[in-house]
Each structure stands twice: as C-alpha cells, then as structure tokens.
Design goal:
Length: about 260
C-alpha cells in the first residue's frame, strides 16, 4: 500500500524530530489521521493494531531509501520510544553530518567506556578527561570542547546526563545497536528475554546472563523463586526485581546490578 497524506505528515514529523515517545506517537497518529479525514481507530483496543499497521505501511515505503521507524524501550524507565533510523549505514559515520571527525572519535571512546563500565554509565568528569587520551585527529579537542560536546550530544538525545553520570540514551541504543554489537562484540551483552542490546540491566552472578530491568519485571512476574533464565544455569536470581509501579529510575538496583565483568 502506498502512503496517504496522513502517513506522509507522520513521516515528516519524524524526520524533523527524530525520536518520539509512545504517547507522542499516538497523538501524532491521531492528528495526522484526523487532519485528512482518514481512518482512525478511536477505540483503544483497535488503536494499537491500527497504529502498528500505519507504521508498517510507512516502513514498507521508506525501506528502499534505507530508513525505518524503529520501536525500542528505554533501559531505565522501560518506556517505549519510536525512532527514525537509517538502515544502510549502521556505523557511527551516520553522525558525520552533525559532528566533526575528532568529535566522533570522542563519542566512540565515550560509548566504549560506558559499555565497558559496571553500571552502563560513567562520570562526566572522567568523560571530559578522556579527551587527553584521544589520538590527535586534525584538531585536538580541549576539555571545554568536550564539555560542550557532551551538552550537544545530550541535546540531540544521544546521551543522558543525570547527577553527573553519563549513559547512552534510547536514540543511541536504537540507532547504534548494530554498530555497538558488532564493534564491541566482546564487551556487549544481549538481553536474554528480548535478545536486543542490553547496556543497563541485571546480570546473573554465575553465568553473566543479562536482562533489561523492564524485561526482568516481565520475566519474573508471578514467579516466587526467580531463577536465571539461562536453562543451563538456573541459579537463584540474586537481584531485587524492580517493581514497575514504584521504580521509575530504579536507582537502588542499579548499583549492584552490573557485576564486574570476568571476561577478558
Ligand atoms: Zn530485554
Ligand atoms: Zn545464570
């Protein structure tokens, strides 16, 4: 099916905004359909399926241009997001239109440090200081440059800075998932439940099996004695299972959630 006016308007919004949360997507979908008097599922139960089909139609049409509206879940709050991603260029060079070569080098190093950290986050001071370790490409970045760059990366939703800690935001996880899994295959993990890249989450003390917080909630729901989902392991799951209603940021579990990596 080709795109109607509603699809086109929806896509245009994505092109200018990049990343939208599920609520914004539902609102946008409603606005686009109503504007052109096109079919809109009022009932909540029909809406989900209709929206899914709506996005699929767009994806089928933009696939030849190597683009896709991809859905993902934020690792911290478990909220759903939609992001327009480029599928032909999975590497970090897709940032080249917005960032210079030395800036991309800095971001690459930042990604590596975050992935290699225990909790999927690093201190902003150590992030800024890492410019000293960068090889000189064209022009060397100063610490002030690094500070400004962190702010820009945050404004463009690539990273999240909270209480002086830097972590990867949902946009980076969605757009750079392939890149991260390929380039850092020896230090990355996939979630045992959803099989997608997992940077922040809980891991098994015995076999390193990893779960996103929101996947752990779902997986261990109504299970009295939580056990490692890896069938060959099955040891007790030694983490407090976050409670969906109360743990928005889940700070208490984060600290111990990521065991030191034993792999070398
Ligand atoms: Zn997961
Ligand atoms: Zn295990």
């Amino acid at each position: 099916m080709s795109m109607k006016d509603s699809h086109k308007l929806f896509l245009q919004s994505f092109m200018s905004r990049g990343l939208l949360d599920a609520k914004e997507v539902r609102q946008l979908y409603r606005t686009c359909c109503l504007k052109f008097n096109e079919k809109y599922a009022e009932k909540e139960e029909d809406q989900k399926a209709h929206l899914l089909e709506f996005v699929r139609t767009i994806n089928r049409n933009i696939q030849p241009f190597h683009m896709e509206i991809k859905k993902g879940v934020s690792e911290e709050e478990g909220k759903s997001f939609y992001c327009l991603v480029c599928t032909s260029d999975t590497s970090i060079t897709k940032l080249a239109s917005d960032y210079t070569q030395p800036e991309m080098e800095f971001f690459k190093r930042l990604i590596e440090s975050i992935i290699d950290s225990d909790n999927g986050e690093i201190g902003s001071t150590s992030a800024i200081n890492s410019v000293d370790k960068l090889e000189k490409v064209n022009k060397k970045l100063s610490k002030q440059d690094a500070q400004n760059l962190l702010e820009r990366l945050e404004a463009q939703k690539w990273i999240k800075i909270s209480r002086g800690r830097v972590s990867l935001a949902t946009r980076a996880l969605l757009e750079l998932e392939q890149y991260i899994l390929e380039v850092y295959s020896n230090i990355t993990d996939k979630c045992n439940v959803c099989k997608r890249l997992c940077v922040k989450g809980q891991s098994c003390d015995s076999c390193n099996t990893k779960l996103h917080f929101h996947c752990a909630i779902r997986f261990f729901q109504n299970k009295e004695n939580p056990r490692c989902p890896n069938k060959e392991c099955g040891v007790n799951w030694a983490h407090e299972i976050p409670n969906r209603s109360t743990d928005v940021e889940m700070p208490s579990t984060q600290q111990e959630s990521r065991k030191r990596k034993t792999r070398t």
